[in-house]
Amino acid sequence: MRLPAILRSSTTRFFALVFILQLISGTALLLFVRHIIADELERTSRTLVTALRDDLIADYEHEGSRGLRQLIATRLATTGARDAAVLLDDPVGNHLAGNIEDWPPFLPFNAGWQVTPPLYRVGRDKPEQMGVISTKLPDGTHLLVGHVIEGDLRVRRLTGEAMIAALLLAIPLALLGAIVATRVITARVERIAETARRVGMGDLSLRVPADESRGDAFGDLADAINLMLARIEALVAELRVVTDSLAHDLRSPLTRLSATIDRAMRETDDEAAVAALERVGAEADTLLAMLSTALQISRAEAGIGRDRFVSTDLGRMLEDLAEVYGPLAEERGFTLTASGQGHADVHRELVGQALANLVDNAMKYGRAGGHIRLSVASHGDFVSLLVDDDGPGIPADQREQALRRFGRLDPARQPGGAGLGLALAAAVSRLHGGGIELGDNQPGLSVRLSLPRVRD
Fold first, then answer.
1. Is residue 400 classed as helix, strand or coil in its secondary structure?
2. At what angle do helices 348-365 and 421-431 cross, to 10 degrees?
3. Would you state the torsion angle of the CA atoms of residues 209, 212, 215, 221, taken in this order, to the nearest 10 degrees?
4. How far out from the chain centre does Cα 69 lie?
5. Does 407 have pLDDT greater than 80?
6. Which residue among 28, 131, 382, 422 is least crowded, i.e. fewest CB within 10 A of its CB?
7. How many angstroms separate the CA atoms of 58 and 55, rounded?
8. Helix (H) or strand (E) holding 277
9. Residue 414 has pLDDT above 50, yes or no
């Protein structure tokens, strides 16, 4: 099953990773502290029991069993022994001394440190959990020395409750930390992405800000991207010089060729020659127009013309276009209308040229007697310019090819033309930071140019 897009997002995964790592590290730290506290409490109790046992054994070695019984009574009567537990039994199990009545049945006579189930001490009405050490003395008597650990267990419970409370507090803190870390990383990545977007829209002079990232991975990435952008800018500048020079060099002979053809047509009376010259002249004009359009596309894709953006009434622009092309459309049997209102910062000449090419395509490929509709519509921060016709349209699987330079489609579109009209419209939309969309007008083609309202 395919995961939702938000779960496949690298940002979501990074957020989850930071949150989980912080939660795991916090939990591990709390468990470590709890273990240290519990270990220290047990070590302290064991030390007390061991020390008391050693003292009692030392007294037994000097005073014997009778002296040990007296010493046990003395020790238990002192204030510092209020948590002590001692039992001295004879070899057959009779109680000799201490504040525990009977030897626990589960406890061996000679065992190291153990934590027992709750036991009763003399004079106590409730059983208490203890840590004990048992020793078998040389005369066969059995010595049990212990320490009540109820207080230690209470401290452990409080520590556990405190740990749970700390974990509950750690969850929102981990979330906050993950959010902050994600925003910091996302903000730095977004600055790089924004620069890339602006460069992709044609502003090749932009560079990734790298001053705050010197010495880390983002600084290295910024340096590499800036080096690449500098190289791209240099190559585009060289390409611009070459294309401008080539266009100028080609325009001159084409212009001279057109002038020569016109002069030859005026100087000859041969109808066949005149017809041939007219065809040659038409081809020369088409070639010159193709060269001019291709140059406009290249300059638009290079980002040239951004300094000529002005606030424009797009509704009025469409009305002017309908007025100019109206007579020609009527002559070819089309109805041309314009509607809608909208304003945006645009390059008037380029947008006008792109729309004129779309109208020309609609008259060239539209259904005879059909309707060509020009409209403008606003949506959010963008405004759309639409050119709709009633022709055969373009199949969905061929629309991407139609937007390429010289992308002529046969038989979906009739032969003729250079295949640059849609390519120019696409280049102009990208220059403005927008896009182009080819849709189905049912029947016919619907071309939508989306342009930002305000220049970025």
1. helix
2. 150
3. -30
4. 77
5. no
6. 28
7. 5
8. helix 271-301
9. no
Q: How wide is the angle at C-alpha 136 spanned by C-alphas 130 and 141, nearest 5°?
A: 100
Separation CA 325–CA 338 (nearest Å): 11
Q: Is the pLDDT of residue 108 over 70?
A: yes
Domains of the chain are 5-153 (3.30.450), 217-301 (1.10.287.130), 306-452 (3.30.565.10)
**If you write DSSP's letter for every residue of 98-127 in order, what string do you get?**
ES--S--TTS-SSEEEEEPSPBPPTT-SS-
Q: Residues 62, 66, 72, 75: is their CA dihedral positive or negative?
A: negative
Burial of 426 (0-12, 13-18, 19+ CB in 10 A): buried
DSSP H or E stretch at residue 386 = strand 382-388
Angle at alpha carbon of residue 179, lines to 176 and 181, rounded to 5°: 105
Say which amino acid occupies 325: Y
Cβ neighbours of residue 48 under 8 Å, at least 6 residues apart? 84, 147
Give the up-direction half-sphere exposure of residue 435: CA atoms within 13 A in the CB hemisphere: 4
- Indicate the SS3 state at residue 441: coil
The candidate with the shortest Cα–Cα distance to 12, out of 179, 184, 217, 187, is 179
Q: How far is CA 239 from CA 225, 234, 235, 242, 384, in A?
A: 21, 9, 6, 5, 32
Of the candidates 208, 173, 165, the one whose C-alpha atom is nearest the C-alpha of residue 34 is 165
Q: Is the pLDDT of residue 413 over 50?
A: no
How do strand 335-339 and strand 371-379 relate by DSSP bridges?
parallel
Backbone φ and ψ of 86, nearest 5°: -135, 140
Report CA torsion sign: 204, 206, 208, 214.
positive
What confidence tier does 35 reach under pLDDT thresholds 50, 70, 90? confident
What is the 8-class DSSP label of residue 128?
A: B
CB 72 within 8 A of CB 85: no
d(C-alpha 97, C-alpha 359), whole Å: 115
Q: How far apart are CA 169 and CA 162, in angstroms?
A: 10
Q: What is the DSSP letter of 130?
A: E
Burial class (CB in 10 A: 0-12, 13-18, 19+), 157: exposed
